[in-house]
Specification:
By secondary structure, the chain is α+β, with helices and mostly antiparallel strands. It has 11 helices and 8 strands. Strands 1, 2, 3, 4, 5, 6, 7 and 8 form an 8-stranded antiparallel sheet that branches. α1 crosses α4, α5 packs across α6 and α6 packs across α7.
Length: 293
């Protein structure tokens, strides 16, 4: 049976929630306050500030009222998603109850950050996000036809609390960067985050601090210093940790030889891999593979 496009909407003051199932849609999009755009099934494409964001299944786009653009859906299958807008009033109330880890006092700048131009729009996967898990369960309730009371202040406060808790560390990272203007802090963070993503997903490649600094468009000294300020470790420390985590997984869960594991983790030299692995874990790769650790 052919499914039809439809919307369901709940609104409370300037807060709103929309559950949609669409196959074709091309409209201007304006967010109010802080916006979460979650895709349960299919793909939604947003264009803000000459940037294109493709939000795929079990991902959500985090943005705010400073970003206006276009949303496009074109699919043979129904694209199912949720959009939540959280008002400035609710965000300010929630941030006032969250203590900054550095001062044990509410951060007076957090709400302004969430609603301002300094906050980077970003696509987040549900596996890496408590807010994403929340949205996934909410979408499942809709698709299973479970009746849920949504037009209450408590619901929007709960969503806001999830988001604020998750974004406080991001705010701390960006504020730690050396830049006078908030937008410059945002741009620096996006450059650093791009290199962090490279380390996370391309760690097998011959990465080093120099080529990562070039990727970020920063001098080597400036890059290493800012990266450590933002993430608490140098890029090479993060790269080694990522490779070692993958090596431990392969040694325990695959039938690959130690030499093959080394190659799969970006090491061309077995001796160098063995030395790095022992320094990181306290055991040689062979001992680790044959142990019950």
């Amino acid at each position: 049976m052919e499914q039809k496009d439809h919307f369901r909407k709940w609104q409370l003051s300037n807060n709103s929630l929309v559950f949609s199932s669409l196959s074709e849609y091309y409209e201007p999009v304006t967010s109010h306050g802080l916006a979460l755009k979650y895709v349960q099934k299919g793909e939604e494409v947003y264009q803000f500030n000459n940037r294109r964001y493709s939000v795929k299944e079990k991902q959500f786009l985090l943005t705010n009222e400073n970003n206006r653009g276009i949303v496009e859906i074109e699919s043979k299958q129904q694209v199912v998603g949720i959009c939540i807008n959280l008002s400035a009033d609710i965000l300010k109330q929630v941030t006032a109850s969250h203590l900054s880890p550095n001062t044990q006092e509410p951060d007076p700048h957090l709400a302004d950050f969430l609603l301002g131009r300094a906050m980077p729009e970003q696509i987040i996967g549900t596996k890496q996000s408590s807010t994403g898990n929340y949205l996934e369960k909410l979408a499942q309730n809709f698709t299973e036809g479970q009746d849920t009371i949504l037009d209450t202040t408590e619901f929007f406060f709960e969503v806001a609390d999830n988001v604020v808790t998750e974004l406080m560390p991001l705010h701390q990272k960006i504020r730690a960067l050396d830049a006078v203007r908030p937008l410059a802090q945002r741009d620096l963070y996006l450059k650093l985050e791009k290199t962090r993503q490279l380390i996370e997903h391309e760690f097998v490649q011959p990465l080093n601090a120099q080529n990562l600094a070039i990727e970020a468009g920063l001098s080597l000294y400036h890059f290493i210093r800012l990266f450590k300020k933002c993430y608490g470790q140098t890029p090479i420390q993060m790269l080694i940790a990522r490779r070692m985590a993958h090596a431990q997984k392969l040694l325990k869960e695959s039938n690959l030889s130690v030499n093959e594991v080394a190659e799969c983790c970006g090491f061309s030299d077995l001796q160098m891999f063995s030395k790095a692995f022992k320094k990181y874990t306290g055991n040689s790769p062979s001992t680790f593979k044959n142990s019950n650790f």
